[in-house]
Amino acid sequence: MRALLDSLAVLSFLGTVLLLFAFSTLLGMVRQLQGKLLQAQAAAPAAPAARSVARFASDDGLPTFVLVVSEHCPNCRERAHRLAAVAGPGLSGHAVLLGSAAHCAEWVTDSQVLPVIDAALLGQLAVGATPSLVKYSANGTEEWRRVVGSDDDLDAFLAVSPSERLSA
User: Fold this and answer.
1) Domain spans in the chain, listed from the N-terminal domain onward
2) Rounded distance between C-alpha atoms, residue 105 and residue 114, angstroms
3) Domain of life, per the record (predicted)?
């Protein structure tokens, strides 16, 4: 019986050593991939600090808030409905919905949100995640961009007052 237990202990020790070698190999592969990613990032041209889009400039001095959405994103649809609910005189700027599919415009019908369906412009903005809110100054220069995860996030980014949150 003692010989059997000793044999099992030796086999488990050998198995542990083999697993350590396997993990070491996997770690080496991950580090190689990380190095390649860092090289690719260094080789890629940096995005401009501020993008200017003349289409989002305004004559009245107010900023433009652009909600960038994708057509198959349920979270995008919810944020579009929320933007449609809060857009209007209480919003300190213009509200725009930017997407590439025509049915995205249906999400903001009968509201003061201007739907812009333009795949080329969407590609030019290079937004990494949707839904995202991008704020443009009155001259059309991008001020900031934020990923919008919830209605509360959208309200905070738009600076919607608590009383308007309850009524919308």
Assistant:
1) 1-44, 54-167
2) 8
3) Bacteria
Task: Give the angle 110-127-86 at the CA atoms, nearest 5°.
Answer: 30
pTM: 0.66
Tell the CATH superfamily of the 54-167 domain.
Glutaredoxin (3.40.30.10)
Burial of 113 (0-12, 13-18, 19+ CB in 10 A): buried
Strand partners, 145: 134
pLDDT tens for each residue of the chain, 168 residues long = 888 888 888 889 988 989 988 988 998 898 888 888 777 776 655 555 558 888 888 888 889 999 999 999 899 899 999 988 888 877 888 899 998 888 888 998 888 888 988 888 888 888 888 899 999 999 989 989 899 988 888 888 888 544 444 444
Distance, in Å, from the CA atom of 164 to the CA atom of 92, rounded to the nearest integer, reads: 13
